[in-house]
TrEMBL record:
Keywords: Cell membrane, Membrane, Signal, Transmembrane, Transmembrane helix
Chief localisation class: membrane
Source organism (scientific name): Mucilaginibacter oryzae
Gene3D superfamilies in the cross-refs: Galactose-binding domain-like
Bilayer topology: Single-pass membrane protein
Signal peptide boundaries: 1-20
Record has NADP as a keyword: no
InterPro entries: Cell_synthase_bac
Protein name (record): Cellulose synthase subunit
Length: 695
């Protein structure tokens, strides 16, 4: 049995989903959840799963694996499962170190927005004295990430239930023409951004000539008359001139595949392959238009979540398209309520540690904040004489503020953090800690309650973080002000689609997404454009436009080499044959934000994509302005300026100097050997002379 669990864990760790016998098996890890630990005497955690329209909840199952602490009294500890805010299952813990729980699901377990919400609550004990169990670090229960959902596939209501509004959740790929236009690239970028907002990972971006044969559920972009004839025949609605079109093609066909089952033969698991045929749905969402104007309208609508989420049919003809977004009272977005960043009102009750968590990004503000005031306004039950209560604020796991609670029942607490304390992505926790009078401990477990007012509590940026040199720490919010142009080398356009998707997603990955860049070829950029717009350029290293970026940390029209400042060893050279992506961010000629990405080697698409992803990660430095990453996920960060000693331009040296730099150690070693041989030769002659003299 243990071998079976180990094998199951291995499969669920490395496979996002497997299809067999009409069911899909999707692990918690495949949904983005790692091992989740519930701490304390009475703790809870929640999981949210988006359920596709092709899932039949009746007959589906939740299979939960969990590991309780070895120290707890299992016979006196409990686990409770709440599905869709309704109690579903409760049980005392068993004796096994890894325990399994199977729960049948039904249609009633889904929320109206088609999410499956699972809450796991625990009541743990280590001793017979509850008061001694408070805050014991040995009280925990771990939800394993190879827990999974077994969801029943159903094509029964496929044609009725699947529509444009809900089809994005199941798509993981985008297909574009092999020779894309700027409109095609723009469509790919906005489709990519929309898919990533559904928390889809590993989005595939394919030229139509390189599309996998097994791909059956994807987004297809392209002007109507540029689509292949076989795909154009799937579209049953014809847009007129100046009309854009979303069209969802749906069909069901029989596919034959082989499935591997693990069979127990004399105590050993043996793989056995069987051939199976099943009815499989096929979905293609076309983003197209009658001609360029209509196609552009479809792309504009693709960036409007309100349009996408309210289109319940299989097609949408678009005559007019515009993006209007809700604006906060503070147009500059310097003050954000906890509700705006996704906070919800949690009624907390009990004893010990009671926490609420919130997440925010620097890009939620209109500029990179230098200092942020964090203010919590809350109500709580008044403390009785002898009770002890505290309110603590944690930022990214570190305690930054603590104050005592009193008999007023009102909390108004604030603290200001500097730029060294907050990161690009932040986790904020508010904690109430309550300890009743010792003598009344057992009778006070539900007497304390608290609730943070998420409407009145807020984050406020005091002033912008302004530096003489731009850094990745300030990306993407450096592009929030003004108009941004995305520039691409025409010959590299087909390789830049995925990277453009990452960029569009990041520019709009905030609470008020309204950044709609213009797309242009580098050959059409005028010198004045570099002063007028923010620039994000994806260029080949031979592109003439690179010469116009004289304020860039690195000049790509010259051969260069980068060194590690700690040991002065070369880290990167432009002549490397490995596919690398290089990103550099800086202020342009009119103090406008400028980001330039270049790619080398044979895997240009992957290099561009690696560079675009690396600059959006939680970087460990505040001042990096150059990032080099390769297709193997290796990454180097540099802070380059005019006086940097870790940058060397090779082409400024003569041939003799370059020869000396390359072979100086060998030359010096040869000279040393010659000196040694000369010394030995002279010494031998001297000895012979002395011997003759003595004779």
């Amino acid at each position: 049995m243990n071998k079976f669990f180990t094998l199951l864990a291995f499969i669920l760790f490395f496979g996002t989903a497997s299809w067999a016998q009409g069911n899909t098996i999707a692990s918690f890890k495949a949904y983005g959840h790692e091992d989740d630990v519930i701490y304390g005497m009475s703790g809870a955690t929640s999981f949210y799963f988006k359920i596709t329209p092709l899932t039949e909840m009746n007959g589906s199952k939740l299979v939960l694996y969990f590991e309780p602490s070895q120290a707890i009294l299992k016979a006196h500890s409990y686990i409770n499962i709440v599905v869709n805010n309704k109690p579903a299952y409760s049980t005392v813990l068993g004796k096994d170190s890894i325990q399994k729980l199977v729960l049948n699901l039904s249609r009633a377990d889904l929320s109206p927005d088609k999410f499956l919400k699972i809450q796991i609550k625990t009541l743990l004990t280590i001793s017979d004295d509850q008061c001694k169990d408070l805050d014991n670090p040995a009280m925990w229960l771990k939800i394993k990430n190879y827990s999974y959902l077994s969801l029943v596939k159903s094509n029964k209501n496929f044609f009725d239930n699947v529509n444009i509004s809900n089809c994005f959740d199941s798509k993981k790929a985008i297909v574009y023409p092999s020779n894309p236009t700027l409109h095609d690239l723009k469509a790919v970028a906005w489709a990519y951004s929309r898919l990533k907002k559904t928390q889809t990972r590993d989005i595939g971006v394919y030229e139509e000539s390189k599309m996998p044969d097994t791909l059956r559920n994807y987004i297809r972009v392209g002007k109507l008359d540029a689509l292949p004839a076989d795909q154009r025949a799937l579209i049953k609605v014809s847009p007129q001139n100046n009309q854009g079109l979303f069209y969802l093609h749906k069909s069901v066909s029989t596919i034959t595949d082989s499935i591997t089952h693990m069979i127990d033969v004399k105590g050993k698991l043996v793989p056995v392959k069987t051939v199976t045929s099943e009815q499989s749905p096929k979905e293609i969402l076309f983003i197209t238009g009658g001609e360029d104007t209509g196609y552009e309208k479809a792309i504009t609508a693709l960036g409007n979540m309100n349009v996408l989420n309210s289109t319940y049919g299989d097609y949408l003809l678009i005559n007019d398209a515009q993006n209007t977004f809700f604006k906060t009272i503070d147009e500059n977005r310097s003050k954000l309520s906890l509700k705006q960043i996704g906070g919800v009102s949690d009624f907390l009750s009990g004893i010990g540690s009671l926490k609420s968590a919130y997440s925010f990004k620097n890009s939620d503000f209109s500029f990179t904040p230098k200092e942020v005031e964090i203010r919590f306004i809350a109500n709580y039950s008044a403390l009785q004489p002898g009770d002890r209560g505290f309110f603590n604020i944690y930022l990214n796991g570190l305690l930054i503020s603590s104050e005592k609670l009193d008999q007023s029942g009102k909390l108004n607490s604030s603290i200001t953090i500097n730029r060294y304390q907050h990161h690009k992505y932040n986790t904020l926790e508010a904690e109430f800690r309550f300890y009743p009078t010792t003598g009344n401990c057992k009778n006070s477990f539900t007497n304390f309650f608290a609730e943070v007012d998420v409407d009145k509590s807020y984050l406020e940026s005091k002033n912008p973080f302004i530096t003489s040199d731009l850094s990745f720490y300030q990306y993407p919010e450096a592009f929030n002000t003004g108009t941004t142009r995305i520039v691409v080398s025409e010959k590299y356009a087909k390789y830049a689609a995925g990277a453009m998707g990452e960029i569009i997603y990041e520019l709009n990955n905030n609470i008020n997404a309204n950044n709609f860049p213009e797309f242009v070829y580098s050959k059409d950029v005028q010198p004045n454009d570099l002063k007028k717009y923010n620039i994000i350029a994806l260029l080949s290293k031979e592109d003439k436009l690179l010469k116009e970026f004289r304020d860039a940390p690195i000049q790509f029209d010259r051969d260069f080499r980068l060194y590690n400042t700690d040991n002065n060893t070369p880290v990167y050279s432009l002549s490397d044959t490995v596919s690398n992506g290089l990103a550099q961010i800086f202020y342009g000629v009119s103090n406008n934000a400028t980001l330039v990405l270049t790619a080398t080697g044979t895997h240009i698409s992957e290099a561009f994509l690696a560079a675009s992803r690396s600059i959006t990660e939680q970087l460990s430095t505040l001042s990096s302005n150059v990032c080099i990453s390769d297709v193997n996920s290796n990454k180097y960060l540099f802070n380059i300026n005019k006086s940097s000693e870790n940058l060397e331009y090779i082409d400024t040296k003569s041939g003799l100097t370059r020869f000396w730099d390359s072979y100086n150690l060998y030359i010096l070693l040869g000279i040393l050997i010659l000196i040694l041989l000369s010394f030995l030769y002279v010494r031998s002659k001297v000895q012979k002379s002395q011997e003759l003299f003595n004779d």
